[in-house]
User: Fold this.
Amino acid sequence: MTTRPPEAIRRITVALDASASSLAALEAALDLAAQWGAEVEGVFVEDINLLRWASLPFAVEVGHVSGEFRKSTRPDVERQLQALADRARGHLRHAADRRRVRASFRTVQGNVVKALRAALGETDVVAIGRGERPRTGRSGLGSTARALAGGRRGLVFVISQRVRLASPVALLFNDSAAGSRALTIALGVARRSAQPLAIIIAGASADLPQELLDRAEHEAVELRPYHVRQDSPSRVAALAHGISAGILVVSAEQFSPDEIEEVASAFAGALLLVGEPES
Amino acid sequence: MKKIRELAVEDLEFHPPLDAAQFTTTDDIEDLDGAVGQPRAVAAIELGVGMVEDGYNIFAFGLPGTGKESLIREYLSKTATSRPSPSDLCYVHNFEDQHRPRLLALPSGTGAEFRHTMAQLVEELLTALRTALDSEEYHTRQQVINDEFKERPDRDLRAIADRAKAEGLALLRTPVGLAFAPLREGEVISGEDFEQLPKEEQERLKERMNAYQDEVQRTLRQIPKLNRERRERLRDLMREVTSLAVGHLMDETRKKYEQLPHVVEYLEAVRTDVIENAKDLAEPEQSGLSALLGEGAGRPDSTSMLKRFQVNLLVDHAETDGAPIVHEDNPTYDNLIGRIEHLAQLGALVTDFTLIKAGALHRANGGYLMLEAHKLLGNTFAWEGLKRALQSHRLRIESLGQALSLVSSVTLEPEPMALQVQVILTGSPMLYYLLCQHDPDFEELFKVGADFDDRMDRTEDNLRHYVQLVAKLVREKSLMPLDGSGIGRLTEHSARIAGDRRKLTLQIATIVDVLREANYLASQDGTTIVTEAHVDRAIQGRVYRADRLRDRFQEEIGRGRIMIDTTSAVVGQVNGISVISFGNFAFGHPSRITARVRLGQGNVVDIEREVELGGPIHSKGVLILGAYLGARYSPDKPLSLAASLVFEQTYAGVEGDSASLAELIALISAIADVPIRQSLAVTGSVNQRGQVQAVGGVTEKIEGFFDICRQRGLTGAEGVLLPTANVENLVLRREVRDAIAQGRFHIYPVDEVDQAIELLTNQEAGERSIKDGPYPAGTVNALVEARLASLAQVRKDFNVPAPAPGPAPVAKDEA
Assistant:
């Protein structure tokens, strides 16, 4: 496995499960890929825990809609997962053809989170839908998205259902190595989408570093500085929402996993988390 | 026998004459107040218009152009202004049953304002609704309710999941549901590992899983109920917010119409509907196909919902002064009863209350409806529809398909309108009498028949009124005034149309046409007053445009192709005169009538009848001749002749008995072998007693024979015999009257056959000196009697039985 500096996005892996949320993630990932000239890989994970459960002789499920008990077997669940995978594959093919983006699809079996974390090492960005509001808990993120976002590794693109990439790009400025990578990615997205880059600067008002200004000038991206007193998740999210940002780029080290979840809950756009590079 | 008196030109003057000295032009004459010459029709109209009881509708009948419509309109106009204007009528949406639109009656002239008020109200309501539903307060309260209800099952499930996890169980999301599975080191246990667990542990886990499944089931089953509760709470919230938003707007409008309970009731229905459907109404308007195919297809979009608050102003009396007078000149079923139009949408025909269109009965309700009977009866089911509305006093708009139960598709059943209208039909006498005879409902519904005369007496008063009428028409039609000579020529023409010098025509339309044409000719001459010359040219022009066939006839006679003798004297040949009518033009022309006799059994053969060219009245006239001959000349002997009569060179049908005098004279001439003067023509019918009776078309007949004689050159011998009873019908052209005045043409009125015999044979007819005595020798009648006696004797001789076979009888004398 090689270290892959995230200055360029050449490959995006999308977690697909045929839900509305994952299909929205697919659309956004394809748009991003079209901007960067990247290829997209759809990954459908057959959850090993589900298959194990279905193998139990007493496996019973309660229907979502009917509330009725149904006995379930492994073949039943495999067929259902196969149907979902087929739908996801079909969506990927049609959506990629529309944008003329090179795309592939694979199905893997295993633990969903582990499988996607593994993918982080093989791709530049892992895109994932923010998830349906789960019946199993109150959160702005689904369990898989929460686990990935909280991992602080690689580039994780968390996408809500109605994200519009043709909107200003926001970046929570962080004067660190991770912050520098986040800046690089944010400048690249802003340039490719011909949108201004809103720089959110937390703490006492300070001038933007000359290097940043030079890079923006070099990339021909308009910079719009915004100041917040504290870099609390809710304030950052509210400001990004206020300037109608489509993507908020944040270096993962700036927030704890719970804070990342708070930002994701409060911000209606897409969240691009820049973590430690995979090695 | 009465003495024959030839008509002098003075006998052909008009009575009374027009005193043109009383005015210079029609500008000096006051307008006529009321109708001329229609006392019977006026009395009927006054009764009909005055009666308010059911069935007093009017059928005005008379010849075309007798001024029925204008007279009725004049009377109605006077009455209508003193009556109140009826209500304006609107159709509005029925919020309880959209297929039965409601009818709202509003004070006359206020319908448009109500429509505007509603349009403005709806616009303001929408603004208020959108403001209220966009408010922070509403959204916050809505969010609180949504969160409360949505979080409850999530919270419960999370609590279940947490408790289960503590007991080593995981809550899994399967593709279609939720399930529990035992965990080992954070992963679901495999089947083999589970089997390795102690039995007690297995049972415990199963039991706990079952318990948690029950809990999940209960939680999931609560969701629909919670959703219902949530929707109800949201609805209550919306009702509260929208009631406040629209309340004051509705109250203002309601106050404006508080005197009209049915409008207030409608406004309350609007208020309820707006509140109940506030969310849909506040949606942005969709348009075109997007409204049909876009998001939310299948539920009403705001545009179509807003349509429900429109007002379809069916009848607007803002411009009506008094009771309406409506004339429907195309009385189809739909135009009378009203119709419901449809729009094609995606291959289906759809409709709503805004597509209801008024009929003439809606517009005339509370007033008068004028219709032309022949148009009404010529339109399928229009008459039936009108009768049904008048009988039921309600006007129900339904298509013919509905009325006849031919279609059963979903359509509208608009609330019927109470009908209070007086219908005035105009038409021909024939239609009136046919309806009386064949439609049992007719006399119940049209109790008043207004009979319009086509002419009136030329009394001094009537003549004065007639001139006033002409003056009024001239002004109404913006024509140049007529001077006295023009009026004189016009009244002369009026008498000619009436066919009587002592009458004036009431076919006003024809008079107006002559006035217009004379006005045109006067304007061509550059004058400002219409004179006799203009009127005369107008009349001559009308004749010229119509008389091509008369010219053809006269040409044929002139060239001898139709043989008419006007100079010699011929046995058994008389010039009869026929009249031919083409449209509104009639002309006379002479026809040669010939008779031949021989021995026979008393039959007078009508050759026209034998070949079925003679009509029944003509045949009747001929049969009368046989009876007359037998009774007068051969009362005690069998009439022993066979006679034949024919109209020479006629190739079309002959009808009427106006030639029976001429035919009788031809027969008498043939029997007596006395020649007939061909310079005279004859018209008139005879009865069995030999009296000459009046006939029609005498003016045209005389002019027809005059034209032929003039063509050949008048010698002073030419003339016409006509029944004395017809003298007053003569309205001859100026040139004929001039010829009479100069003694170059003659008109002889006759009362009995003998007068005609003497005029036509130049011989005494002869009268019996005593009853059953002989006619004086040498007279025509004596010759006829002798010839018939001779024929009877010959016939008797023929009837001697033939001798029986055997020895020849011995003559007594010889014996």
Notes: Chain A touches chain B through 33 residues (CB under 8 Å). The CA atoms of residues 34 and 99 of chain A lie 7 Å apart. The first strand of chain A starts at residue 11 and ends at 15. Chain A is about 40% helix and 25% strand.
